[in-house]
Amino acid sequence: PTSAARAREVHVPTVVAHRGASAYAPENTLAAIDKAAQLGFSWVENDVQRTRDGELVVLHDESLQRTTNVEDVFPGRAPWKVGDFTAAEIARLDAGSWFSPAYAGARVPTLRQYMRRVEQNHEKLLLEIKSPELYPGIERQTLSLLGNEGWLDRRHLGQLIVQSFSADSVRTVHELRPGVITGYLGTPTVAQLHGFARFTDMVNPSYGSLSPEYVATVHAFEGPHGRPLGLFAWTVDDAATARRVAGYGSDGIISNKPDVVRAALDGN
Ligand code: G3P
Ligand code: CA
Fold this sequence. Notes:
alpha/beta; 11 helices; single chain; signal; Glycerophosphodiester phosphodiesterase; binds calcium ion; TIM Barrel; binds SN-glycerol-3-phosphate; GP_PDE_dom
């Protein structure tokens, strides 16, 4: 069974560190996934985009502005879109100082660097293909890199989920590599679920759109691998919401503060 299905059997949601343990270290950096590992979490979430010269990098926003010093290093290149910069240019940026001086010098990782650190840390990855409409072919490219890094091998079965807000992107991933576990980000209608269940193993909604009935509806569908659709809710950072969403039957909770969620679910 998937981790989601396993989690459901014992009614303990999987806790996923959102953009790494991003309340405590700068999001989507190697420091953030190190922090997740230090806190004892094996699942991390990230966001993948592409540079002007075709390198896959890990960053949430379409612009480098919020989470790097790009304005200082490259003034005059507003709006500082990831896709307008080369990998070498992005590698020069400080992606840690905006968060805290303690993280000065943290970099925007390439996906290759990121996957190697995930492997070293014995972590598991919920990989989001972000804004795929901006990056034609990013699904094939991402799968190719994952394959080269060994992440499509049997030893990594159950340790990787590829998700997107774009149903087309999720479908493309499933068609290219049917063995990969996939997730659709959003709250599809029942009518949509009939179609989506052909290519997605999971439906991962914002917690604000959830109800116990909706979780049960999602679970009643069977995904492309013959198992009930899984459901991870995002982004839950407080104890009361974590308990509520777990009570709805969510298989996972995605959090910037995974330690807070775990403590809440342990009853602490
Ligand atoms: O993994 C769920 C969550 O990351 C989706 O929203 O905007 O944080 O990428 P966002
Ligand atoms: Ca994300």
